[in-house]
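Table 4 source record.
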Amino acid sequence: MLYPLTFETIFKDKIWGGQKIKTILGKDFTAESAGALPNCGETWEVSGVEGNVSVVSDGPLAGKNLAELIGEYKADLVGQHVYEQFGDTFPLLVKFIDANDDLSIQVHPNDQLAKERHNSFGKTEMWYILQADEGATLNSGFNRTVSRDEYLKAVEENTLMDILNIEPAKPGDVFFLPAGRVHYIGKGLLLAEIQQTSDITYRIYDFDRTDDKGQKRELHTEQAVDAIDYQFHDTYKTEYEKALNHSVNAVTCPYFVTNVLHFDREVLHDFSHLDSFVILVCVGGGVTIQSGNTHEVTLKMGQCALIPASVKSVTLIPDGEMTLLESYVPGV
């Protein structure tokens, strides 16, 4: 019988990573079991990416990975329409990212381009800011509409920063980044990322940094050109009204819906209207998730649970106040 699933964290060493995954989220990436990393840029919390498939950490299914579970439980795990659309591929990837330094300026291809070039899904994503150092910023899109030639000239002359839209960021902010939007996460930000299952990134500029061998990371200038949305958009930050003891929609797109749940009282949360799994990401406080009499999961900030599609309701019991991101694949 399926129940709310938690997974072993996958730690990723990154040139720009820091210590917040450990100091703020309480995940010890220095332990031998985690690979004994000196720092950590990302954790992958729910992943079906080949070579990085999440493994169940608790309950009767502990030790089984997400691919095995989809193969065994199919629509009971992911939902009928999700299984019909994606088969044995899990369609979403959830990460936490600690930017101790600026990430590279980058862009991700859309589904069509990713399919043609990489036989992969594209990458539309969203960010929820968990913590921000004073003055921390990020980039989403351009500060004006630019032509392809103007963009290439800015890359060549190292003036790309002049045409980027820079946004201040604070805890609770949401940024939606459709495939094709140039972006980077700025130094001093800790965030949750929900995205399509894809690991394709075109790196445009990496601030001339070098690794421990003195090597610069590869750039993908030519590949990026055809992937970029060169248009200016009126708003880049996603506005939503955070309301106590309510579920508030933050992002709705063809690939995922994300709602923000901010509660300080127990609530019976119903999923019977959905034909999809649900991922609950704790981004503030703590919560106990009860599913019938079969299983109980406790989450604190920086932890996630996957609610199988066959589980039609859960009881959420906050530890004081809690904030969750609730993500699922929308119906057709």
